[in-house]
Amino acid sequence: MRKATVLSISVFALSSALFSPGGNAQQSSDAPAAKASAQQVELPVVVRDKKGAIVTSLQKGDLSLTQDGRPQTIQSLTTAGSEPLRVGLLVETSRSMSGAMEAERKAATNFVDLVLPADAGAAGKDEAFLLHFDREVELLEDFTSSRDKLHQEIEDMGPTSKQRDDSQGPETTGDDRGSERNRRGGPQLYDAIYLAADELMKNKDGRKVLVVFSNGADHGSKETLNDAVDAADRAGLAVYTIYFKGEPERSYGSDSYPGSRRGGIGYPGGGGGYPGGYPGGGGRRQPEPTSSSGLDGRKIMQQIAARTGGHAFEAKHTGDLDPIYKLINDELRAEYVLTFTPDKPDNEGGFHKVAVTAGNKDWTVSTREGYYAPEK
Predict the structure, then answer these.
(1) Torsion of CA 76, 82, 83, 89, to 10 degrees
(2) CA 214, 304, 143: angle at the middle one, nearest 5?
(3) What Cα–Cα distance (Å) separates residue 272 from each residue in 218, 243, 334?
(4) Are the CB atoms for 29 and 11 separated by under 8 Å?
(5) Does 188 score more than 90 pLDDT?
(6) d(Cα 87, Cα 13) in Å, to the nearest integer?
């Protein structure tokens, strides 16, 4: 994939020095974030208590698993510290997000420092890439273990040049994306996720994560929301979303919206309204950013995270961005890998829904909604 492709998301690589929970869980040397083989399936699992704190001493007996509604036997539950980590940072750079870009650059830079070793030569396995998207999707830095390279691209990151010849349409992958609809379009969120998953992540090993900063409003993507999530499922990756409402962008015509900034962040089980709460308080509530299809941007970001086993966060103020990135890093350090062999083998590449629950009713389990079996 070249820098001229149409991706624009910000994703970061995480450190291999992951948190090692206690108990009898043992380290696994080969346990990707979400991988299926003919005999075995591996899923990422994060558990939080009712206060939102991460549970760090899980045993496999604490959890139950079903596939397509049928109970399954959990074979192992291991920490994921020894696996290579592949992180993609996807950042929306449309005009509506301009007020948050300085804070986003600082938070993203700090995140890179958290997840990548200072010595790129010694890192070996952990890598990150950086994409930005608005009316185009562009790969700014391919997979690298270098903090310096990512720092530089983050610092230089900005909206697509207004001087580009619009008659050509967005330069994506040489297909029909240069349509009239796309030339008038805005941030291509779905295309960014689809291309990051399908062209950059799919053939990588290890734990795979996308971190997406956006207001969730898609205008002009060729791919649909389902296409984007489907690509993430096939690549076996989790998507963490950071929703920021942003400011009005009048170029969207009837889909323009006023901006709003209010304090607080959200996380599973804790304060801040995650996963579903909307800002409260008095006064008239302003409309949410919406996609060309009419879908609410906040809900879109929540759906993407929930369906892929990530988490949805909301930055109600630019000052929330740095704490949110730290929360994502903490979660990735405390992740477990659950392994099981399905009771009914599938060699035809079908999609299978999975559900993981905890015996402790005060715990919330996060994992993927399902996986694609490998085709033979």
Answers:
(1) 120
(2) 70
(3) 25, 13, 21
(4) no
(5) yes
(6) 4
